[in-house]
Amino acid sequence: MNAERFLNDLNHLRSFGASGVGKGVVRPAYSEPDIAARKWLAERFAEAGLRVETDEMGNLFGLADAPSLLMGSHSDSQPEGGWLDGALGVIAALEVARSSRETGGPAISVVSFQDEEGRFGVTTGSAVWAGHLSLAEADLLTDHAGIPLVQARHAIAGMVTGPVDATQFQGFIELHIEQGPTLDQSGEQIGVVTDIVGIRDMKMTFEGQQNHAGTTPMHLRKDAFQAVSAFNTALNERFRNVVTPSTVWTVGHLSLHPNASSIVPGKAVFSMQWRDGDVDRLSRMEQIVRNTAEEIAQERDMALTFGPLLGLEPVVMDARLRQALMRGAQDIAPGEWREMPSGALHDATNVSRLMPVAMLFVPSIGGISHAFEEDTDEADLVAGVSVLVRAIRHLA
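^ thats the sequence. predicted structure below, dont judge the formating
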């Protein structure tokens, strides 16, 4: 690999949507910085001798001529995101494709999936490409501002070339930052992923009565925010005998109406997300979520509505691809790597419906991700790409 070329491209991608705070980026799916980044990536793919294709969702591919191994990740970011989440996997794949082509190695194709960060759903771009979600269904999804996906997709209309057939790919490998503290705390350089947890995500709404904040007695209020607070407290208690130490759940987005200091909020729309590696536990948690919300709504005389339940099932990595990554890790970082699960969701989950998949992690400094402070040492970034190059040799 050409480490200097790889790092230069990775840093240049950061310039699209640069936040001005550290190395952070603001590059949500279908935003102007996101589209500009995809156009730049398309140029880089073409320069590497790859055929550029973009499907209707905006998933961007750089295709090798022969049947190939697909590598990549995503290039959109969280509303306030780090410079490596997704971007590392795309630029790493580009470097592996270039170096393999230059040295007469195996054919490598590259992808940058769209909306992995869930502006409109859960890993929406790869979900549509893999058939987990139809385009018609996806188009009905809206972001937190109420913008429908079908409207947002107009931004990439000029780039669309048509569908990309998955049968040309022999498998998929995704390099990613860990987004957690395990490797950073252990001092290890590489993580070979064993499996990816499942996820459930749902919007919920409590609707009470908007009223005057100074004249409405507390016992007569139908305060939608108080309902959310009571729901969250009760949920934590009811999950206690169901979850494991690795189970996580989050109320991550809350919108109050009318969201004014002197008005009792009459409506609260919020997100509820939970993750675990066991399908049965995910289902049990869903029932607890629904039952708890219904009880809170009934007790407080409020209307309750549930949005569509989105999610993905847990996925075990392919044994052959994982073995190649393990051999590559031992070549590059002998004794300084480990096998580990992924608590974060990735496009590889969707792609596993179509082909064998595997994943590789490099450390996140301080375990920080989905924040402007997200970072990884350059030596670890280069090591991750080097492991991919060695793994390709072992597969060949």
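DSSP finds twelve helices and 17 strands in the chain.
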